[in-house]
Amino acid sequence: MPQLFGTQPRGQFSARHFLLTSSKPFVPRTLKETNSPRKLGLRFRAAPLFRWPFVCNRKLYAPSLANALKTRPLHSEPTRPSPHGLDNFPRRPGCVTHRLCKQPWRLHNSSPSADHNHHRSQFRHGVAWQHSLLLRHRHQLLRQFRLLERQRHLRRLSSSRRHLPRRTLHRPRRSSPGGKVQVTATSHADSSKSSTAGITVSSDIAVSLSPFSSSVELGALQSFRASITSSGKPDPSIRWSLSGPACPNNCGAIDANGNYTAPAILPSAPSVTLTATSVADPSRQNSITVAIASHFTLQLAAPSSLQPGVTATIVATLTPTPGSNPNAGLSWSLSGSGCSGSACGILSVITTQSAGGGAIADTANYTAPATPPQPNTVVVTVTPQADPSKQAQATITIQTGPSISLLPATASLAANRRVTLTVTENGTTGSSLVWSVNGISGGNSTVGELCVVASSPCQNVTSGTATQVDYIAPGAIPSSNPVSVQVAIAGNPAIYSSAQITVINHILVSVFPNSVTLPPLGVQGFTASVLGTGNQAVVWQVQGSGCASSGACGSVTPSGTFTAPATPPTPNTIQIVALSQDDSTQSGAANVTISFGSNILSLHPASVYAGGANGFTLTVDGSGFVLSNPGPGSILLIAGIARVTTCSSVNSCSTPVNNTDVVQPGNVSVQMQSPSGALSNIVSLVVAAPGSTDDVISLTSSSPSIAGKNITVVEPTTAGVDNSSVSFDLNVAALGAFNTSTNACNLGGNPIPLTRPASGTIAADICLFSQSGFDTSMNYTVSGPGDVAVISRQPAGLGIIHLTIQIPSTALPGARTLFVQNANLDKTAASGVLEIQ
Questions:
Q1: For a tag on the chain, would you pick the N or C end, based on fewer CB atoms within 10 A?
Q2: Per-residue pLDDT tens for 59-101?
């Protein structure tokens, strides 16, 4: 028998290489039969040794032979058989199981023997033994593969966070700094297998705050910054809070960004504690104490003396420190040791306006008492609400005997501007007067000069009998401000008077009101006050970034009346500017915001009488309405109830009003609702009670006016359907005599003469025409004591009514008025159209 492992040519045999699968035994077949199958005596020829293509690849999470084949190429077969005891597989670097990578696969055979049967038996038993050994190796390998895969899977779950699936990765809450959490890892291959680990979350957050020491003026803004430091990555948000004795009412406010606004009124405990707290760990915070400072100044300019009964102006000027905004409210009081109440005089505040540089000036009129008190001094006290400790006082002497007074007693004057001062003598006339400014005779260029009235250049005045002089302010604010202009009687300096004049850098223009919100087409009147000059004239303008085209921002009249545009501009904030005619470089402005959305401006009619028999059409004018076509459009709510509404434009809508809506006197609410549900402002429809009787107001050339008459006037219910071309307000357009034989009406514009009979009564026929049309349902009456009456009414067509009037012989002569009233109690009067002769 030939050798089992001989060197026969390879062409006579073909080797089959079968790979291991889950359904086939792990047996490499390297033998091929030469003939058809036989039970015994089967001869085999040797084939080259098969080299198993198994490799270990540590990079594969689930190693398999299929992955190995895909990852590494098969090695070529050896050209010669390997000796017994040598590996046919080279060792692979990184193999996990040495046995898997090293152990060769080869057939175990005994040595050749002469006994053929012995060889056959030996070969048969050797193959069977070798087959069973291969099966055992297969099962052993499968167990090792499963164990290896599971070990690697568990190592991936527990050794590194990057192998955790996203849904099992635990991230501690950034705002939960303390406590323990538990992390559980569950196998995807076997959900019953899991492992847990406890994690302790700690906080090392530190909060820093800057500036750490701060003093803030009243109403000023101070920005604080807070930051946190931590070895982790906590939520960096900061929560700000204020605390202190004055909180929460008068300790200021702080926003979410750490911007602190001090209170406008100094609290009794002028400090507040500001705390920055970490949102991630509320136990970590930092606090500082902020001092609230008050350094504004208050000056009071008042005359030093006044004659009894004389009125003078007193000015109190509150000047804040830069960047602050204290409460500008000032409280005025009047007192005296020798008087109380009105016995000390009368004090009334008249204006409050800006004095430049953030300063606020309060002006008050003080009228001295008719009888000087004893002692003859009064004290004017001004107390600021922002800090009552900074009150200012002025003592005014009420003069007795001969005296003089200088008016105006106070004034504010821009640099190089002039004001005329007038002296009034009491108990003396024609006195020689001595003038000075801050004690300097006639003044100078530093404190201001006293000049002859209207002189240019200035003709200096130091003394004389002239009772008027001009004071010209210096070009720069003097060190002593306000300055005191004093006039005294020559030879009797005890009789004097003075005026306090405050010098400011330039003219200041203030506009009132300084901020308003108007709807489209809204109307607002503005006034301007010019401080620092006697010329109060201004030029009005409308300005804004959205005002490029003409009329886009509305219009303003020369008197300061502003009408908003029909559509809000973009942006919808504009300025109403007043330019000083004295100095066109100086101006003041008011901010006007044009609102969006629906807004009602007016109703037509705006008022009606209660108890009308018929309904009427109510037309609403305004802005921001939504057209009914194509719809849905805006809806009018009458007394809160939606009505069928027709909106023909964005500025006009109408709806019917029922007679039941106006049964009782009072106010009926009218409101517009947009398709989105937004509501407009509420406007009231006035329902007035009709008068029970008519009153007659008799006016003559000797008595052309009368007082004490209250006249209630309502609009006709037809006002909602009036337009520019057609009037439906019951006006008598024309009247005349009616010819019953021809049924002709001779319309005209002159009164109709009606002649009384000598005795009994007589009938006269007249006709009236109105563009709205008259009909027989209306009530027609003639003024007077009831002696002249309308006894018949018939339609004549084309809106003409034929009336028959009965005139008795006893009728009073004179002009009569014809009244026409419809079912809705609308009433019109044709005054003096009938003349009884």
A1: C
A2: 434 444 444 444 444 444 444 444 444 444 444 444 444 444 4
- One-letter amino acid for residue 506 of the chain: H
Q: In whole angstroms, give the CA distance from residue 448 to residue 475.
A: 8
Under DSSP, the state recorded for 72 is S
Integer Cα distance of 778 and 662 in angstroms: 20
> What Å distances lie between residue 245 and 223, 269, 286, 386, 782, CA to CA?
22, 7, 19, 18, 78
- Residue ranges of the chain with pLDDT lower than 50? 1-114, 160-172, 176-177
Encode 599-633 in three state secondary structure: EEEEEECCEEECCCCCCEEEEEEEECCCCCCCCCC
**C-alpha gyration radius of the chain:** 55
pLDDT of residue 42: 40
d(CA 544, CA 523): 18
Of 517, 482, 478, which is closest to residue 499 (Cα–Cα)? 482
Torsional sign, CA 315, 320, 325, 326: negative
Reported for 480-484, long-range contacts at CB under 8 A and 24+ positions apart, including other chains, are 480/438, 480/447, 482/299, 482/301, 482/410, 483/437, 483/438, 483/447, 483/448, 484/437, 484/438
Question: What pTM does this model have?
Answer: 0.50
Query: Helices (H), strands (E): how many in the chain?
Result: 3, 57
Residue 716 and residue 770 in contact, taking contact as beta carbons nearer than 8 Å: no
In 187-284, which ranges are E strands?
194-200, 206-210, 214-217, 221-223, 225-229, 238-243, 253-254, 259-261, 271-278
